[in-house]
Amino acid sequence: MPKYLIYSICLSALCLLWGCGSRGSVDAVLDAAGDNRAEIEQVIARYEDTDTAEAARWLVGAMLGRNGRVGAGMDSLEAIYAQLPNGATWQLDSAQLARGRNFANLPLEKISDAAAVSGDYLISNLRDAYRLRDSRKWNAQLSDEQFCELLLPYRIGDEPLSDWRRAYRRWLAPIEDSIALLDNAVDAARIVSQFIGSCPYNDQLSTPHRSAIALLEHPVGYCREDCDRTVYAMRAAGIPVAVDMMLVSPENGGGHQWNVVYDNEAGIMRMFDNLRYPPTRDRIHNDGRRKGKVYRFVSEPQTRRLDIRKSAPHAPVGLTNPWLRDVTAEYFGHNEAEIKVDAPSGEVYLGLFTPSGYKPIDIARVSGGKAMFKNIEPELIYFPIEWRSGGFRPCGMPFLLSTDGYIRIFEADTSVVSSARLTRKYPLRFMNKERLASVVGLHVQSSSSAAGSWRDIHVIERPATGNYHRILLEQPIGDRYIRLFKEGAPGANISELVASDDSLALLTRPLEIAGTEETRLRYRTLADGNIMTGTLLAAGAEDLVFRVGGAEPVTNLFVVPGNDDNFVVPGQDYELFYYTAEGWKSLGRKVSQGFDVEFEVPDNAVLLLRNHTKGVEEQVFVMGGGRQLFSTDLQNTGCRQ
User: Fold this and answer.
1) For the stretch 424-455, what's the b/e string if a residue is b when 16 or more beta carbons lie within 10 angstroms of its beta carbon?
2) What ranges make up the beta strands (E) of 474-606?
3) For 540, left (φ over 0), alpha (ψ -120 to 50), or beta?
4) Residue in 437, 555, 430 with CA at minimum distance from that of residue 505
5) Strands of 583-591's sheet, edge to edge?
C-alpha cells in the first residue's frame, strides 16, 4: 500500500510560539522571521484597513511552524524522474529505482517559511486566490473560513515552494472554456479531475514531499503526491478542495489520502479519486475502503492536538499533528461509544488490529474505568488500547458500534460452539475483487499444435471465489497446448495457469510458454510457480499459449487470477485464535485438506487465522451467517448478538 509522510515539525517549539487566535500567531511569525521580518510586515501593511486584511493576517499566521525541505537528495531524485520515457510504458528501470530509493533516504534541510518566504510571493498568492473567488460562480457563497482553508493556502505541507498557480493554470488552459461558465464546483472538479487522470502517473517510488512544479513536470509518487497534484490544479482553477486521510486502514494497516471538493449547492465536501471515483453529486463518500477515523489537512493549526502531546507522550505523531482536523462526522455522522477499559485513569486509544500490531487512530480520557470514543466509523472491529511495555496493547474487549448506536462487545462464549469453514485469513479488498472478476469471459482453449486450431474447453462465466478457478473437465485433455484468450475489454489479470494430476493442484505438471522469445519474456511470470507474480492479458491477445509437460492426458486445469495469496490452499499449516480478556488463545492447528479449513469456534468471538507455512498478512474477523466477516464485509450487516 502507498506510504504517507506526516509533516516534519518541532512540536515543543510550536507549543511555545503559539498564541491565542490570529494576533498571537501573526506576532509569533514575525518574531520567528528574523531578518525576513520586513518581508512579512509588508503583507500586513499592504492590506491594513481593507476587506482583505483578515485574510492577509490569516495567511501570515498560517506560516507558523511551516518549513520547506530541500537538499541534494531531492535534486538527484528529480534528475532520475526526468529520465522517464514518454511512451506507453512510463516506468523506471531497476537501476533507476535503486538509485531513487537511495536518494529518497538522504537527509534534507528544513527552511523556515517565516525566515525565507518573500512578501511578494504571499501577496501574489493572496491576489490570485481573491481573483478566483470573485470570478468563479460556484464561489459566490464561500465563507471566509472556507476561502482561507480551501483556496488561499500557498503550500500544502513541507514541499519546496514554487510559483505553482500560474504554471498549473497554463497546464489547464485546454479545459478553461469548459469550466468557466459552470455554477457548481463539483461539476468543474469533474472536468479537471478527468484531465489530471488522463495524464501519465508513476507510483513506483515513495518520495520526499515534492514541489508543485516538479509534480507537474514529472508526476511521480504515491497517493500523497497524486493528491497534492490535484490540489494544485484545482485551486489554480479556483475550485475549493482539500486532502483527507486515514492514519491507519482497518483493512491493511497502512495510511491513505484522497481529495475532497466543496459542493457549493449541497454545502458538503465530496470525496473523489481522479481515475476510480471522479467527482460527482450522486454520492458523498464511497471509495470501497473502510476508514475508522478520517482527518483533513488544514492550514490553520489545531492547538488541541498539541495538548495531546503533553498528556500522552506516546501518542503517534499523526494524533498530535496540529495540521490535521478530525472530520469523521462528515462521513459517518456524530456518534459515541462508551467502553469499559482496564485503566483507572489517563488516556487510552481507539485501536485497530493490523499485521504489524495494534495501531491507534484516536484518543480518549478514562473516567470511572470507561473511555468515550466519539465520531467513529460504524460496523468495524475496534480494540481499546494503551501504551504498555514498549508497545500498544489491548486494555479492554474488542467492540463494534452499529449504525443505530448499538455497541456489541465481543466476549467469547465457550459454552456455545459451532463449526466454521474458513477460506481466508485477510480481507478481500476491492482491488483484489476486481482482479478476481477480471477473468470473467476468459476462454480456455486447447490444441494439438501451438499454431491451433483452437477449441474452447471452458469459458469463465463468474468471478473466481478463491486463488484457483478450477476448470471442470468432462474428460481428460490429450492436447499438449493450452491457450488463454480474452474477447472483451478489459483484459484479464492472471497470475498462473496450473495443470495438475489431482483436484487440489498439488501434483502439478510442468508448463512452458510457447512462441517467440519476446512472447516467453512477456508472459514468463505465468509459469513461474509464484502466485504473487502475474500479468495483464490484453483483450484480443492471441499469443498466450502454454505447452503442457508429461505424457498422460491433463485431468485438471486451474486458472489463477491475480490475487493476494491469502486464501486457504491445500497442504498448508493453519492455526485459529480467538480473543479473550487474557489475550489470544488457540483453537487448534491443522493442515488444510482442501481450499478451506474447518474449526470449532465459540460464539461471539473475534477470530484470527494464521498460516504457519507462509505469509504474514492476517486480520481479525467474526462469524456471521455461517461465513467470515472481515472489516470489508461488516457494512450493513446489522452485526449484533
Assistant:
1) bbbbbbeebebbbbbbbbbbbbbbeeeeeebe
2) 481-486, 492-500, 511-513, 535-537, 545-548, 556-561, 573-580, 583-591, 597-603
3) left
4) 555
5) 583-591, 573-580, 607-611
**pLDDT under 70: residue ranges of the chain:** 1-24, 86-89, 283-285, 636-641
Grid cell listed for 291: 476508514
Q: What pLDDT sits at residue 133?
A: 96
- pLDDT (tens digit, 9 = 90+) per residue, 40-61? 999 999 999 899 999 999 999 9
pLDDT for 131 = 96
Q: At 630, which amino acid appears?
A: F
Q: How far apart are CA 28 and CA 25, in angstroms?
A: 5
Tally the C-alpha atoms within 13 A of residue 426's C-alpha that lie toward its C-beta.
Answer: 23
- At residue 375, the pLDDT reads 97
What's the rounded Cα separation, in Å, for the pair 186 and 501? 56
For residue 11, what is the enclosing H or E element?
A: helix 11-17
Give the contacts of 581 (CB within 8 A, at least 6 positions apart).
397, 411
The type of residue at 197 is: G
Residue type, 472: L
Cα–Cα distance measured from residue 364 to residue 325, given in angstroms and rounded to the nearest whole number: 16
Q: Are 7 and 295 in contact (CB under 8 A)?
A: no
Give me the pLDDT at residue 496, please: 93
Q: At 180, is the secondary structure helix, strand, or coil?
A: helix
H-run or E-run covering 433: helix 430-437
Name the CA radius of gyration of the chain, rounded: 28
**Which of 428, 320, 326 is closest to 376 using CA atoms?**
326
Amino acid at 270: R
Provide the whole-model pTM.
0.90
Instruction: Determine contact, residues 242/232, Cβ cutoff 8 Å.
Output: no
